[in-house]
Amino acid sequence: MSGSLTVVGTGIKSIAHLTSEARIAISNSDKLLFLVADFLTQDWLRKANPTAEDLHCFYSDRKPREETYRDMSSHIMRFVREGKSVCAAFYGHPGVFAAPTHMAIKQAREEGFKAQMLPGISAEDCLFAELGIDPARTGCQSFETTDFLLYKRKFDPCCSLILWQVGVIGNFDYRDRGYDTSGIPTLVNHLKQFYPSDHEVTLFEAATYNVCESSVEKMALGGLSSARLTSSSTLYISPVRRLVSADRGMLDALRVPPEFVKMVKGESPTQNWPAKDR
Amino acid sequence: MPATKLSDFLLKLGEDPHTAQEFRAKPLETMTAAGLSDSEKHIILSGNAHRISQALRPGLTRGAGGGDTTVVVVVVVVV
């Protein structure tokens, strides 16, 4: 079979986050399909590959997102079946919060076509860099906000918590003119079962252009209900700092040397291990 | 296609280290040399992503941070 599919990420900060392998895949494909968040990247993609076609046309107001993603995936597959080497470029990381890419890759492989995904820079990567968070320090849990509430996902408040799509809480369809965020008080009330009301939370929105700063807004959990949210907002909740100690049975089983065993507030005993040993 | 001078300048800032360095040191001079209008200079200096998007082309919205996906609701009814 001659058709193939390569899915790439364009990152968050327009063209600045494009990797070398993504640029090559974009330029060398017979057909380029894209879904990006800014016009600068669109412009660059159209120049890099004249076959470029925007998948944004599959969105329409109040159309269920699940249906949109199926349409996008089917459209991508149409060109793969025609025997073309297809590149699908999605903003951020193409496998993170991007359903149509996974659908298309699965479909392509099931039909016997070669399909691969190349990683990109996600909003979470930007968050780690800009808020100075190392997920290895206490562990890090990441959920889609509506999913987090609907299924009452189990999490550990002593670990970092990231809630994606907090600005589209409770919304299942696409909205041209912004989303209803009336579900935020429900989220705050749920989180108050695990965190004090004055616990610091951060609303983060990564910069889209290289002449812009990312938006970093710190506030008390209780203040989240009145915060201004956008569809690009991500909520970071720092770990609760409380006395935790490593499990004695595990320490013995792993033969952890005593000098590495510390009782620290909300931080794992491995935090002071030499990096090369991690 | 977007407003070409503004778009070209921003693309160059992202690809050409020399232009990026010049812009950091002398933003106004660099934008003037690129032929940007006063209005375009103000938009860039505002650092406001929404204003820049509007100037490049109005009307685009994006999904969530870094991606956009949906949640499938599974309801199990036990009789």
Descriptive notes:
The complex is a heterodimer of chains A (278) and B (79). With 278 residues, chain A is of the alpha/beta class. In chain A, 29% of the residues lie in helices and 19% in strands. Chain A contains 9 helices and 12 strands. In chain A, α3 runs parallel beside α4. The longest helix of chain A is centred in the first third of the chain and has 17 residues, at 65-81. With 79 residues, chain B is an all-alpha fold. Chain B has one domain (1-79). Helices cover 57% and strands 0% of the residues of chain B. Chain B contains 5 helices and no strands. Chain B has helices at 4-15, 17-25, 27-33, 38-46, 49-56. The N and C termini of chain B lie far apart (58 Å).
The main β sheet of chain B shows up as: none
What is the CA-based Rg of chain B, rounded? 20 Å
Estimate the strand proportion of chain B.
under 5%
Mean pLDDT of chain A: 90
Which assembly state applies to the chains in this document? heterodimer
Structure annotation, total helices of chain A: 9
SSE sequence of chain A, one letter per element = EHEHEHEHEHHEHEHEEEEHE
In total, the number of domains of chain A comes to 3
Taking Cα atoms only, what radius of gyration of chain A do you get, to the nearest Å? Answer: 21 Å
The total number of structural domains of chain B is: 1
- Tell me roughly what share of residues is in helical segments of chain A: 25-40%
Strand coverage percent of chain A: 15-25%
Label the structural class of chain A: alpha/beta
Low-confidence stretches of chain A: 269-278
The total count of strands of chain B amounts to: 0
Number of continuous helical runs of chain B = 5
